[in-house]
Amino acid sequence: MKKTSALFAALLIILGSGPAAPAQEKITLTLEKCLSLALSQNPFYLASQERTDAAQARVRQAAAQFFPSLNAQGLQNLDEKVFVLEFPSFIPGGRPQRFAIDFTKDYQFSLNFTLPLYTGGRLTSGYRSAKLGYLSSQESSRQTTNETVLNVKRGYYNYLLAKQLVGISEEALNLAEKTLQNVKNMFEVGVASRLDLLRAEVRVANLKPPLIQARNNVAVAELSLKTLLGLDVAQPVEVSGEMTYTPVDINLDESIAKAVENRPELSQLQYQKQVAGEMIKIARADYLPTIALSGNYSTWADRFAFGKNNWQSFYAFNLVLSIPLFNGLQTPAKVAESQALIRELGFTEKGLVNNIKFEVQAAYLTLNNAQEALLSQEKNIDAAQESVRVAELNYSEGLITITDLGAAQVALSEARINYLRAIYEYTVSLAQLEKAVGLSWKDSESN
Q1: Sorting pLDDT into bands at 50, 70 and 90, what band is 141?
Q2: How many CB atoms lie within 10 A of CB 362?
Q3: 318 strand-pairing partners
Q4: What pLDDT is stored for residue 377 in this prediction?
Q5: Cα(101)–Cα(246) distance, integer angstroms
Q6: Right CATH for 25-67+121-288+330-446 from 1.20.1600.10, 1.10.357.10, 2.60.120.560, 3.40.50.300
Q7: Is the pLDDT confidence value at 93 over 90?
C-alpha cells in the first residue's frame, strides 16, 4: 500500500511539473544594438511617439470641421394619451359625445445636415493651430529621442567602465597575491620579516572588498542598461565593445550657433508661439457673425408600411445667421490670455537659449578636461608599470620595504583607474555635447 501511494505521488509530481520553460537566448549588445532596442521598445520613448500620433489625429479632427455634418433619427411612438373632445348631446338628457383625435404619428424619421459657410476664421485658425501642435509634438519626439540616445550611451559606457574596473581590481588582487607568495617564500628562508608578511596579507585582504563592490557595480550597471533598453531583467545579455579615445576637433562658437539652430526645445517654443497667435484669431472671431447652411427632411406615418400615400414628408433648407451681441466680456479676456502666453513664451525662449549656451560650454569644457587627463594618465600608466617592476626587483634585493612596494602597486592601480575614468568622461562628454548641439543619433554617428 505504501509503495503504491509513493508511485502515485511521484506520478502526480511528474505530470504537474509540465515541460520546462525554454531558456532565453543571450543577446549580444553593441552600442548600435542598444540604441536600436531603446528606440523600438523603451516605454517612455514609445509614449512620446503615441503623443505625436495623437497630435496628428487632432489635425484630422480640425480638418473635419470644414465638412458638413449629417445625422439621421428614427422614432417609434410606443404609447400615448390621445386628445379627447367632448360635445354635449343634441338630445335632451342624452350622454355627451366624445371624439378622440390623434395628432401624433407612430413612426417618424428625419435627416438633418449642417454646413458652416463662414465662422470668422475659427475653423481656419483651429486647423492651423492643430497643424502647429503636430509640428511641435514632432520636435518633442525628437527631443525625447536625443535624451534616450544620451541615456543609452551613458548606460552602455557605464557598464563598460564597471566591467573594466573589475579587471583592474582583479589584476591588483592577483599582483598582491603574487607579492604575498614571494614574501612567504622569502620569510621561510629568513630574508623577509614577519612584519612584511603581515603587511602583504593585510594588503590582499584589503583588496577583496573593492573587488566584490566592483562586481556588484557591474550587475547594477547591467540591470540599468536592460531597463533603458526595455528588456526583461532576466534576459541574459553580453555587452560587447570597449571605450576608445578618438580625438575630435570642436569649435565652441560653431557648436553654440548650431545648438541654437538645431535644438528641438527652441523649435517647440516657436511653434507654441504661433499656436498662441492662432488662439488670438480664434478669440477675436467671437466678435464676428457666423453663417451656416442647414437642411432637414422628415417623414412620418401611422403604420410602418411602404404603401402608396402612407407616408407624409417635409423638407426645408435654411440659411442661419448668428450675430454675437454680448458674452460677458469673455472675448477680450481670451485675447489678453493668449497675448500674455506669447509674452511668457518669449521670456522662456530667452532663458532656454541661455541654458543651451551654458550646456554646450559645460560639455565642451568637460570634454577638454577629460582629454587632457586622458593624455596625461596614458603616460602615467607606463611610468607606474615601470615603477612596480623596479620596486619588485629592489624589494627582492632588500633595497626597499614592503610598504614601498605596496605603494608602487597602488599607484599603478590608481593610474589605470584614472585612465579608464578619463576615457569614460571623454566619451560621455562627447555624447553630452552632441545632445547639447541638437544632433540626432544618425548625425552624431556620421561625424
Answers
A1: very high
A2: 14
A3: 294
A4: 83
A5: 97
A6: 1.20.1600.10
A7: no
CA distance 447 to 443: 6
**In which residue are the cell numbers 578636461 written?**
369
Residue 21: band (very low, low, confident or very high) from pLDDT cuts 50, 70, 90: very low
- C-beta separation of 352 from 408 below 8 A: no
Which residues contact residue 287 at a Cβ distance below 8 angstroms, ignoring those fewer than 6 apart? Answer: 120, 324, 331
Q: What would the grid cell of residue 65 be? A: 470641421
What angle (nearest 5°) sits at the alpha carbon of residue 113, between those of residues 74 and 102? 35
Amino acid at 85: L
More confident residue, 401 or 103: 401
Q: Write the DSSP assignment of 67-87 as a string of letters.
A: SPEEEEEEEE------EEEEE
Contact predicate 239/155, CB 8 Å? no
Q: What is the rounded distance in angstroms from the CA atom of residue 364 to the CA atom of residue 205?
A: 41
Q: State which amino acid sits at residue 355.
A: N
**R_g over Cα of the chain:** 41
Quote the strand ranges of 135-247, DSSP E: 237-239
Who has greater pLDDT, 216 or 401?
A: 216
Pairing status of strand 237-239 against strand 107-118: unpaired
CB-count exposure of residue 428 (10 Å: 0-12, 13-18, 19+): buried
Q: Where are the alpha helices (DSSP H) in 108-251?
A: 122-188, 194-229
By three-state DSSP, how is residue 117 classified?
strand
Residue with cell 497630435: 55
d(CA 145, CA 46): 10
Q: How far apart are CA 340 and CA 152, in angstroms?
A: 39
The sign of the dihedral angle between the CA atoms of 149, 150, 155, 158 is positive
- What is the reported pLDDT for 442? 60
The predicted-structure confidence for 308-360, as pLDDT tens digits, reads as follows 667 778 889 999 999 998 888 888 999 999 999 999 999 999 999 999 999 99
Task: Give Cα separations from 127 to 47, 231, 291 (angstroms).
Answer: 24, 40, 19
Using pLDDT thresholds of 50, 70 and 90, give the confidence band for residue 236.
very high
Q: What is the pLDDT of residues 180-214, one digit of tens each?
A: 898 898 888 888 888 888 988 998 999 999 999 99
Grid cell of 124 as nine digits: 481656419
